[in-house]
Structures are given as structure tokens and as C-alpha cells.
Design brief:
The chain is of the alpha+beta class. Helices cover about 45% and strands about 25% of the residues. A hairpin with a 5-residue loop joins β4 and β5. The radius of gyration is 51 Å and the shape is elongated.
Length: about 525
């Protein structure tokens, strides 16, 4: 205004006018500054309120009353309202002891009083009752004091996390109890060092620290070292994910003697332990089981020997009794005239009985120490057909219908044709003997086919079959249910099939009797490397 009147001299009026305008400008400036400050404060409060309302944590502002004996609720954010499951409009202005009865019995109230008195912030973790009708919820709170004297609590409800943590701890405890009390030895290996083992493993291998057994070859039985070493190297190189084997070892070293020997079934596999790769090793002590198995094997051998002895005694007794009778007769006739022809007849009978005894001994020797098979590439239908042709006449006389359903185009197999023919003859004779007392309906069917990597022969009959309780004994030497049977035929058949790398099994046939199933491997040409 003054600048627009430069031509005017500054008289008293103008000086007063200028002073007034300066005062007005100063006042307006202060008003504008205050307005700006109020606007900034309002915006700051809006930001603070927006921040507080959108926090995931609960925020509650308290003001001490009755000299800190109680606290009045001044403010609540939305998260706090949800956590406490209350309407904040109904609790603001009320005392905390009225809103939460029994809060004085909890540690959080002592924290409020301590922060109010000392001004030092404190952390609280513990249970808080919303009311006495519900279980406490678990809170983690940070409590501090404002310069205005108000107490602010920022907290989270961690009940679900605590319950989950508790459930995890209980689950871990159950798992640890299960592992620690397992009858299976369990250990964890990292960098060839055993970093954990349960009680069963400690009883088996000794306390920690100790070496990793699968690389401590000095303790492993000499006959099992190569097997364990080979498998251990393969799992180390990740060629196999899981290793499983049975082996013998000496827990205290081989110098302690044979009584220290243990049998174990071991399984090792890759796993992770405390963020690092590790090998989980499970071991079952099989020492007692192996000892029992050994005793059962001895018992089976003794039982088989007993049956062999009984069979031999039965077959030798009759001709031997005849020989004794004939010898007594000779004793009476040798000095009488005209008894030469009678004596010759008796000598022939003695010789016949002697041949029978020799035959029994020869069969037993053949079974105990059979000759080596003379392998050749053959069509298995050949010896099977020969055996059927040899049996055809006797089968026909016995009223047995003998049928064959042979493949006709079998691949070659590596076998001894004579032994194969003997095996089939034994099975045919065994089937015929089973149907000896039948008046009609006697039938035997022989088949051949290819299944997988083997040639399958079956010999089925319509006889009475084999009782379930003796199926596992019929291949034992001298085991027989026939009064006139030797009990050697099926044992020899088993030996022949086994020597050819095959299998033989018995089951019920569709004809109503028994069916013997034999599988002989097909010849495989080796590829030249």
C-alpha cells in the first residue's frame, strides 16, 4: 500500500498507518502459524489413530487412579477389542478391575503398577482371564509409560501359538519316548560320527562316543566284511537310498572270542538331522533268533536222520530176517545127503535178499551224494515225453488215464535229460501210488509252458490230495504215508530240481488231487563285454 504511494511524504499519519499494518501482519502471521501447527497436529493425530487402529497388536491406554491402586481404561484399538471380545465403547472410562475381575491375581497388574511407579518399560508373558468362566488366554505384552503419565500396553494373543507349541512339545515327547523305548536300535550318523543313539542301540553297540559300525570293519565278522563294505560304499555314493542287510559283528572286538558275536539286521537310509544330511541307522538284534534257527536246523537234520534210519531199518529188516531164517535152515541141511538142490535154492534166496539190502544202501548213498548233473541245452519236452512213454503201459494196466498237454515249442534250457526224466518218473509214480486204492476216476495230466523267465511243468492227479499238515514234510527223506513206500522219490526230485536252479512246489489240483509245479530257468546267453 505504501509502495503504491511513493510520492507521498511520510507524515505522522503515514507512520501510524505503517505501524498498524506491521502489527496486523505480525498478528496474522502468528494466527497462520498456529493454524498450520494445529493442522499438522490434527494430521499427526489422524495418522497416529489410523496406525493404532490398523495394528494387529492390541493397544490399550490406562490412567492410574487411586494413587496407582487401580487403572482406568482411556482408549482401546480395534485389535484389542477383538482380542478381549468386548465393546470398547462400553469399557472406556471404566476401571480395569471392573472390566476384568480377578486381574489383580495375575502378573500383568503388578507390571502396570511397576511401570507406573518406576517409568521403566517391562515385558510380560502369561495367562490372562477374560472371565472366570473360560480358560485363560496367553498374552505377550510390552508395557510402557507416556510422558503424560498414562500407561500403554501393546500386546498379542498367542494362545493358539502356545497351544500349538505345547502340542508340538507333547508330540516330540511322545516321539522321543517311542524312540528311546523302542526295541529296535536307532542311531543317527553325520560325517561318520554317531551323534545320537537310543537305549537299545547303546545296549547293543555301547555308549557314545563310538565309531560308526558300518565303517568299523575290524568289528565285523570276516565273512561279512565284503558285503557290508560294498553296501556301505554304495549308500555313501548315493547309488542306493536305503541299505538293508544281515551281518555278524563283535561289539567288543574279535579278540574277545566267539561268545561276543552278535547277529543284526541293519537298515540305513539318508535323512536330515538339525539342518544337515545324516544317515539313520536301525538295528535289530537277531542273535537269539539265529541261535534258535540254528537249533531248529539241527533238530530238522536229526529228525530227517531219524526218518532215514527208520526207513533203512524197515527196508533192511525184512531181507535180513529172511537171511537169518535161510542160514538156520542151511545149518540143519548142510550134513544131510540129497539136500544139494534145496541148499542151492536157499543160497539163491539169500543172494536175492542180499541184493535188496545192497539196493537200499545204494539208493541212500545216491540221495546223500548224488552224481553231478551233465548239463546240456535241451528241449525239456523231450525227457518229459520219454518219462510219459515209459509209464504209459503200467498206467494203463492200473486203469489210470494219462494225458499230456506239452507246449511243443519250448525255449532251450540247460539241464541233464536223464535226471529230468527221472524226476518226472518219480512224480508220475508218486501220483499213481496215491490213486492205488481208487476204483475209478484215476487220471494224471502233465503240462509244459513258458512263464516269465522259466519253463513250468505240472503233474496233476485226481487222487485224494495231500493233507495241509504234511505238505511241508513230503519232500523230507523217507517221509511217506504209504505202508510200502520208501519216502525217497520226492526227496530225489527236489534234489534234482534244486541242482538245476529251479523250484518245486505242491498245491491242490483242479482234478481234486495234488499238483506238483516245477519251474526250470530258461537258458540265457551271456553278452560279451
Amino acid at each position: 500500500y505504501l509502495e503504491e504511494r511513493p510520492e507521498c511524504d511520510e507524515g505522522p499519519f503515514l507512520q501510524e498507518e505503517k505501524a498498524l499494518l506491521d502489527a496486523i501482519a505480525e498478528r496474522v502471521g502468528r494466527i497462520i502459524e498456529r493454524k498450520w501447527a494445529q493442522d499438522a497436529l490434527g494430521k499427526s493425530e489422524e495418522k497416529f489413530r489410523e496406525l493404532m487402529e490398523n495394528m494387529h497388536s492390541g493397544v490399550v491406554v490406562y490412567e492410574a487412579v487411586a494413587d496407582g491402586e487401580d487403572f482406568e481404561i482411556k482408549d482401546f484399538n480395534r485389535s484389542g477389542e477383538k482380542i478381549e471380545k468386548i465393546d470398547r465403547e462400553k469399557v472406556i472410562g471404566r476401571r480395569v478391575t471392573d472390566v476384568f475381575p480377578g486381574i489383580k491375581d495375575l502378573g500383568i497388574f503388578d507390571v502396570f503398577q511397576s511401570v507406573w511407579q518406576t517409568g521403566k518399560p517391562e515385558y510380560f508373558s502369561g495367562g490372562v482371564y477374560l472371565d472366570h468362566r473360560t480358560p485363560p488366554s496367553w498374552r505377550e505384552s510390552y508395557v510402557y509409560k507416556l510422558s503424560s503419565g498414562e500407561i500403554v500396553a501393546v500386546y498379542q494373543d498367542v494362545t493358539e501359538q502356545k497351544l500349538a507349541q505345547k502340542a508340538l512339545q507333547e508330540s516330540e515327547k511322545r516321539f522321543r519316548d517311542l524312540v528311546e523305548n523302542s526295541l529296535t536300535g536307532i542311531s543317527i550318523v553325520q560325517d561318520n560320527q554317531v551323534v545320537y543313539q537310543n537305549q537299545a542301540q547303546e545296549r547293543l553297540l555301547g555308549p557314545l562316543p563310538r565309531s560308526y559300525l558300518l565303517v568299523d570293519f575290524e568289528k565285523i565278522h570276516s565273512k561279512d566284511v565284503e558285503t557290508v563294505k560294498r553296501l556301505s560304499q554304495r549308500i555313501d555314493k548315493r547309488e542306493i537310498q536305503t541299505l538293508e542287510t544281515d551281518f555278524r559283528f563283535y561289539p567288543q572286538g574279535p579278540n574277545k572270542g566267539g561268545k561276543n558275536l552278535k547277529w543284526v539286521n541293519c537298515r540305513a537310509l539318508w535323512t536330515e538331522y538339525r539342518g544337515k544330511e545324516a544317515i539313520l541307522v536301525n538295528m535289530i538284534d537277531m542273535t537269539k533268533a539265529k541261535e534258535l534257527e540254528h537249533l531248529l536246523t539241527i533238530q530238522d537234520k536229526m529228525a530227517s536222520l531219524g526218518r532215514v534210519a527208520a526207513g533203512m531199518a524197515h527196508e533192511i529188516r525184512n531181507p535180513l530176517s529172511g537171511i537169518n531164517i535161510y542160514l538156520n535152515t542151511l545149518k540143519k541141511l548142510h550134513h544131510k545127503n540129497g539136500s544139494e538142490e534145496k541148499i542151492k535154492q536157499i543160497l539163491r534166496q539169500i543172494q536175492s535178499a542180499s541184493h535188496k539190502i545192497e539196493s537200499v544202501i545204494r539208493r541212500v548213498m545216491d540221495f546223500a551224494k548224488p552224481g553231478e548233473p551233465r548239463f546240456d541245452l535241451i528241449d525239456l519236452d523231450g525227457p518229459v515225453t520219454e518219462a510219459i512213454n515209459l509209464s504209459a503201459v503200467s498206467m494203463r494196466k492200473s486203469g489210470i488215464v494219462l494225458e499230456k498237454a506239452l507246449s511243443g515249442n519250448l525255449p532251450p534250457c540247460n539241464a541233464d535229460p536223464t535226471l529230468m526224466e527221472e524226476m518226472v518218473l518219480n512224480l508220475l509214480n508218486n501220483a499213481a501210488g496215491a490213486m492205488k486204492t481208487m476204483a475209478e476216476g484215476k487220471k494224471i495230466v502233465v503240462t509244459s509252458s513258458v512263464k516269465g523267465d522259466g519253463i513250468v511243468l505240472t503233474v496233476s492227479d485226481s487222487g485224494p490230495g495231500i493233507a495241509a499238515e504234511i505238505k511241508d514234510k513230503i519232500f523230507d527223506p523217507y517221509f511217506t504215508t504209504k505202508s510200502d513206500g520208501t519216502g525217497i522219490g520226492l526227496s530225489i526230485s527236489l534234489r534234482i530240481v534244486t541242482d538245476h536252479g529251479g523250484t518245486i512246489a505242491v498245491s491242490d489240483s483242479d482234478l481234486g488231487g495234488a499238483e506238483f509245479l516245477i519251474k526250470i530257468p530258461i537258458f540265457q546267453e551271456r553278452s560279451e563285454s
